Amino acid sequence: MPRNNQPLRLHLNHYRSYIAISYEDMEVGFCTPEFAAKIVETFNEHEKLHEDNETVYKAFKLACLDLIRQTGGNANQINRRMKHYLEKAKRPEHGTRAIAFLLRERQQELDVSNREFVRFCYSYKLAPQELKNIFQGKDVTDEQLKPLSRILGKTVEELTEMRDGFTDTELNRLARILGTSNEELAQLFSN
Asked: Where in the chain is the domain with CATH 1.10.260?
């Protein structure tokens, strides 16, 4: 690509060797042996990761099938069960689970035990029972947002958005999809 309307010049060192790079039977460029080795290494790592992911997916599917068989369920439920566990394993974006996830991350950052983390949170005026309730999935109150904000290094507004579920952008998108206004949608969720 030209830079500043100047054509790019190919610089070759006549004393170095270059290896052709091919893609779908077409030569797409040249590089030094060191870069070629790095490219091959990267592709091999990617291929191994892909194979490992397939193996883990198959193992996950077998585990879900075993669970369904043990509970007397129907083997046709396997996709629904797998989807359920995959959703559960994803990092939550909204609700109390998302805030609990941030608290666990904060504890890991501090590299402290559970007991030390409880004391740390209490020093910011979040009682041990309140912390326990958050980890159990109980609702986060408005009064808890200020100490959580200090503990997590986030604004109260960010935590409110996280707790309440939808950002303005998400509400706008959902309203467009449903063909309604934001106000009507907000009323629907407040009921």
From this structure: 96-164
